[in-house]
Amino acid sequence: MPQTADDMDAVAVRTWCSLALEALGREREAIDAINVYPVADGDTGTNLYLTVESATQAVEAVFAAHETGTTAPVAADAVRAMAHGALIGARGNSGTILAQLLRGMAGVLADGHDADHLRRALTRAAAAARQAVAHPVEGTVLTVATAAAESAGRTADDAGTAAVAQAAYEGARTALEATPGQLAVLGRAGVVDAGGRGLVTVLGALVEAVSGRAPEHTYAAVPATVVPAPQDCAEGGPAFEVIYLLEATDGAVDRLRTRLDGLGDSLVVVGGDGLWNVHVHVDDAGAAVEAGVEAGRPYRIRITHFGADRVHPPTEPVQRAVVVVVPGDGLRGLCKEAGATTVLARPGEPPASGELVDAIRRAHAREVVLLPNDAELRHTAAAAAEQARAEGVRVALIPTRAAVQGIAALAVHEPDRSFDEDVVAMTAAAGATRYAELAVAERQSWTMAGICQAGDILGLIDGDVAVIGEDVPETARNVLDRMLAAGGELVTLVLGDDVPDTLADELEEHVREGYLAVDTVVYRGGPPCAPLLIGVE
Questions:
Q1: The predicted structure's pLDDT at residue 477
Q2: In this structure, what is the dihedral angle of CA atoms 145, 149, 151, 152, given to the nearest 10 degrees?
Q3: What phi and psi, each to the nearest 5 degrees, are found at residue 140?
Q4: pLDDT score for 228
Q5: How far apart are alpha carbons 281 and 360 in whole angstroms?
Q6: What span, in angstroms and rounded, lies between the C-alpha atoms of 179 and 492?
Q7: Whole-angstrom distance between the N-terminal and C-terminal Cα of the chain?
Q8: CB 350, CB 277: distance < 8 Å
């Protein structure tokens, strides 16, 4: 049953998320069908649905965590979870803006959940969304959000939460109906703004959550039409959509905004407190990812190709190479067999930018994909890429953080396709690969998994100590179980030179018996300091 109390408490937030997800599920295809701006790719409804789905899952996790206790979640817990879930799960331009709207609301509703706080939350949300968009355009979801906030702000001081939500909904619906007259591409297509229509749907769910009644009026009665071909709406626009989560400081993000704004359009950067969601449309997907590497730690990288008709193909044949940093001679041979130019990273002696530039030169190619395979090398690799570009080489830096990610990227490398498409495929393969390694503790110390003693075997997953064990096989099995709990199709094992082959046999059997349809591949040649490297795709 919908929430009926005139209040935005935790239950109302939970109900709002549930109703919004249900409503977007019903209207997803209709919203997709009218998606003509900023790119006519027919996915706005789907992106909004997936964003709200992530927010809903985060809120449900809060309630699940309280099920065994004696107290229910408070409103602050619920709204913060909603905003965080939307941020980490935001999809597309529309989903990213919605995530910022919810984040803006959460910043106010965490302090109070009465009608006045809802008014101020809607105002904060609209302002935050505009600030997140590099070049705000009227006739879009931003216009609809502003109208909703202004309408809510005009309600009487003694109005209840339901009345404020209803006013916001009516203001948004009216503004939505006017969008075809504000944005020429909408007028030509005869549709309202898809993102704005999605926001009206979300606000309608808010009305029902706090009042118990669905709004009497529906969204603007503009018929869904077949989406115009991309060239009718955005001819010559960028070829790729790049989205990633980014751990970075405020100052680094300010510099990132400036750089990405020069690379493409539809730039939206949302978030704060060290975690950001970055969205941009570009022709050079590799450069957009590299900008994130220079700003901080990008992950969950998603690159979408808008269509072959929008790619700017090279005017003449090109020669392409891959330059890979490898931690041992065994992997060096493997990568050379795959056609890559390699740079050996010796223990305690990471390669300098000059070595990477020399490797790029040795590749004798006009296009180079650079795989550093180490998070500590991101700035070194970025400097090398910049120097090589100054020498006339087109370089894409893929921010691989481990050798197994580099192996995954190299496995899908196809020099015969376009450079951008190759970079997209390699980036996606690397981003889909979780990595781990086993190491021997040198001294007693505190870790994320507890206190370890000298000689303990440490299992590091994605760079953090997750398992402390007494021997390599047991620790490796525990690490694999943790990684495969989240799913996987392929396990890559890279054994150190001193590790017996029996370890690979044991782990292959462990995977085969415990995880159906998961394949395992084994290589030799890991770094001397790590008995085992693990990748899960």
A1: 92
A2: 130
A3: -120, -170
A4: 43
A5: 28
A6: 51
A7: 41
A8: no
**What local confidence, expressed as pLDDT, does residue 132 receive?**
92
* Confidence at residue 75, expressed as pLDDT on a 0 to 100 scale: 85
The alpha carbon of residue 272 and the mean position of all alpha carbons in its chain are separated, in whole angstroms, by 15
Cα–Cα distance, 153 to 131 (Å, whole number): 20
> d(Cα 25, Cα 50) in Å, to the nearest integer?
9
- In contact, 419 and 320? CB cutoff 8 Å: yes
Helix (H) and strand (E) counts for the chain?
Answer: 19, 16
pLDDT at 70: 57
Residues 6 or more apart whose Cβ sits within 8 Å of residue 324: 335, 340, 341, 342, 343, 371, 373, 406, 410
Backbone angles phi, psi at 445, to 5 degrees: -160, 165
Q: Is 174 exposed, middle or buried (0-12, 13-18, 19+ CB in 10 A)?
A: middle
Query: What pLDDT was estimated at residue 230?
Result: 41
291: phi > 0 → left, psi -120 to 50 → alpha, else beta; which? alpha
Strand-pair category, 367-371 with 394-397: parallel
Task: Round to whole Å and give the CA distance between 281 and 304.
Answer: 9
Give the chain's residues under pLDDT 50.
1-5, 220-235, 308-318
Burial (CB count within 10 angstroms: exposed 0-12, middle 13-18, buried 19+), residue 214: middle
